[in-house]
Amino acid sequence: MKKQIMMIAALFVALGAYAQHDHSQKEGSKMDHSMHAGMTPESGQVMTYDTPSEFRNQLGEVYKTSLVLTENFITGEGNDISNTSAQVKEILKKVDMNLLKSSEAHMDWMMNLKEMNSALETISNTAETKTQKTAYASFNQALYKSVKAFGTTESTIYYQHCPMALDNQGAFWLSNSKEIRNPYFGGSMLTCGSTKEMLN
């Protein structure tokens, strides 16, 4: 009887080890896939895609509307910030993801889109400045990844950074001007920051 109990116990241990091994394999695959979808493991850079001009035009419209949102953050107009974030969200709805033919590009866009929509929703639904700015930083990161990955038909886009934003965590934004106009500090520290990258 003891022998049977020990054999059953050993079987459960073996099954547990197998399940754990199988689970870790699945997790590894998931991680590899997410790395492939968004970043190249070797360089850590955003993957780029050959994208139809129609999609680049639509993404360009999102970027252009986001410039108005940035200006609202600079001037600190709360109502304008909420209204413009809702407008950006409406423009995002018009981006046709079916124009992206590869599954990797499609998945990349869906991840960025989810992040942008979530951030814009937060900006629209709160009047708390710190929360809005944190969401605005998330939106800009997802928009940057989208512009970098898919391109737009816009002229040079400046990817700018302020190391003191969000309680010294640092935050980025996109601009159509080389001149620094900081949306995180507005009038108090308007020129704090630098251009980190130029996108075409």
In short:
The protein is 62% helix and 8% strand. By secondary structure, it is mainly α.
Model description:
With 200 residues, the chain is mainly α. It is built from six helices and three strands; from the N terminus they run H-H-H-H-H-E-H-E-E. It has helices at 2-38, 53-75, 78-93, 103-125, 129-150, 165-168; strands at 157-162, 171-175, 194-199. Strands 2-1-3 form a three-stranded antiparallel β-sheet. The longest helix is centred in the first third of the chain and has 37 residues, at 2-38.
| H and E string | HHHHHEHEE
Rounded to an integer in angstroms, the radius of gyration calculated over CA atoms is 22 Å
Number of helices: 6
Q: Overall 3D geometry?
A: globular
Overall number of strands: 3
Beta-strand percent range: 5-15%
Main sheet characteristics: 3 strands, antiparallel
Share of helical residues:
55-70%
Short descriptors:
globular, mainly alpha, three-stranded antiparallel β-sheet, about 200 residues, about 60% helix
Please write out the topology:
Blueprint: H1 2-38, H2 53-75, H3 78-93, H4 103-125, H5 129-150, E1 157-162, H6 165-168, E2 171-175, E3 194-199
Antiparallel strand pairs: 1-2, 1-3
